[in-house]
Each structure stands twice: as structure tokens, then as C-alpha cells.
Amino acid sequence: MRSTDLAKVDLNLLVVLRTLLETRSVTRTAERLGSSQPAVSRSLAKLRHLLDDRLMVKSASGMMPTLRAEAMLEPLASLLGSVETFLLKPEFEPAGTDRVFRIATTDYGALAILPNIAARFAREAPNASIQIVSFSRDVSRTLAEGQIDLVLYSDNPVPGSFRTRELFRESFVSLVRRGHPLLDQIRGGKDALPLKIFTAWPHILVSVFGGQGGPIDTALAERGLKRHVALQVPYFATAAVITAASDFLVTMPSRAAHQLAPRLGLTILKAPALVKPWGYRLLWHERSHGDPGAVWLRRLVIEGVRSARAGLADSQAQ
User: CATH classification of 6-87, choosing from 3.40.50.300, 1.10.10.10, 1.10.1790.10, 1.20.1250.10?
Assistant: First the structure.
């Protein structure tokens, strides 16, 4: 048995052979394949040399396959069917998938994004699930390795080369419990908190990675001011719960605040304009850019954010 160097085999020849076996005619094969009779005849000659068999022979009723060629018809159809399936672009049906989508984010990202997509996700992909992975310093590595599908992140620099899509611009607001004594010191609450009042009360600092202070503390220091951080936690939701049970003040991104305040009886106040608005974005790796499931999830997030933004604008207008 001689071996065949597949690198030298033209798969188009197998397509010609299958059509010849089906039509038993060089003329009809050429018509079906949109080719010419001489081209089909040349392909047949190459096939005869490759397979060391006459394959198609003349008879009174036209061309007939040799016994070997006739035996090839079924496995050839199966082989080419497998090749065609292999070359098809994969499809994704949300309704039929049980895929687990992994998103790396902080609890802020979960608060800002998940309420906007949860109902639609459950409706369109009832057997799928979302797993939130803790945001870590090696998130770029886990994204590149395919351990996570998406990252929700601010517009801070990210190592590595990733695809990005800005979802919205974000800014800080402050929260206090209803009935907080601070509320008696301000008029109506439509203006930003005066720095004197802002720094007079104990604060909760939310720091995902730990460390002393944050962008607000840096901005205060530039003005020669300082706030008293009475408590430091890594989660915005935890900070909000504690704020509701104390006289502490917490400052956090507005979208998280609007999710938490109504549920916990908190009052939202305009924070001092210490930090400029920043972007919040979606990150994914090039390797998953064309994956149909990942494309569907990204579209779900983007459309959910757009819908929530429109709803927020309507509520503010009222």
C-alpha cells in the first residue's frame, strides 16, 4: 500500500469525482460545476493518476464507474460532507445553548450592567448562565488565555492588545442615609456638596485592590484638604449597606448608587467636582472577536446599557 502526501492532493479533484459519479457525464459535470469539458477531463486524468484506477470508463450508455469508483461514492460523499461542515461558520442559537459566559468585573460593574441584561438574558438563553469572576491584577492574562469572555473595566490603561468598546461615561455621587444630619446643612441637595461639609463627616472608602486612598483623596490633597476614612471595604454594595446603618458618607459611581439607594433608603447627593467623568468600557480578546456566542453577549450588554441610559434620561427629565 503506497502512502499519499495530502499536501499534494487538490481537494477540488474530489468534488469533480463525486459529481462525475453522480452524473456519469463529463458534459453534465462541467455544467453543474460551472466549468468546461476540457477542465473536467484534465481533472479526471489527474484523479486516475492519483488513485491508480480508470475510475470512469466508456460504455454503450455513456460513462460508467469502475468497481473501485462505485465503491467510493458513499465514503466520498461522507468525506466531502464533513469538509463542508468543517468549513461552515459556526452558528449560535441562544435558546439552545447551555454555555457558561464568564465576565470579569468588580461589584460596581455587576451593579451597573447585570440589572440591565438579566431579564433578556434569561428570556433568550434560558439554559445558559453568566459567571462573574473577581477582577484581579492578572485579568489581561486570563482574558488572553480564554478563561474569561469579557472584562468590564474603566478607561484606565490595560496591558496587552484587546478590543474595546466604551459603554458610557461615569461620574461620582455621594450617599447618606435618610435623615442624616448632613441633610440639614444643605439646601435642597441640587448643588454639589460643599467641600467643607463633604470633609466634615467620616467616609467609607471603596478600594478594590486595597491601598490607601483613591482618586478623591488625591484630588483633595491637591487642594490641601483631607477626609477622614473611617472604614475601607472592597465592595460598593457592602459600603452602601453600612452607610444605611450609620452616619458614614460613601462616594461611588452614579450607576451603582442608583441601583443601591432606593433599596437601602439612601439619599443621593451631588459629590464635589473633584474628579472628571471617566469612561467605562467592554474589553475582549481578538481570539473571541468573531465567536458567535461572544458576539451575542457583547451585543446584549451594549443594547442593555443603551436602553438603561435612555430610561435614566427620561426619569431625570421628569
Answer: 1.10.10.10
Strands 266-270 and 172-177: antiparallel
pTM of the model: 0.71
pLDDT in tens, 155-208: 777 766 788 999 999 999 999 999 999 998 886 656 789 999 999 999 999 998
C-alpha to C-alpha distances, 185 to 8, 62, 159, 180, 182, nearest whole angstrom: 84, 102, 45, 10, 5
Q: What would the pLDDT profile of 60-74 be if each residue is shown by its tens digit?
A: 777 888 999 889 889
Domain layout of the chain by residue ranges: 6-87, 94-170+279-317, 172-276
Options 3.20.20.140, 3.40.190.10, 3.30.565.10, 3.90.226.10; CATH for 94-170+279-317 is 3.40.190.10
The answer to whether residues 272 and 194 touch, using CB atoms and an 8 Å cutoff, is yes
Nearest CA among 37, 49, 68 for reference residue 8? 49
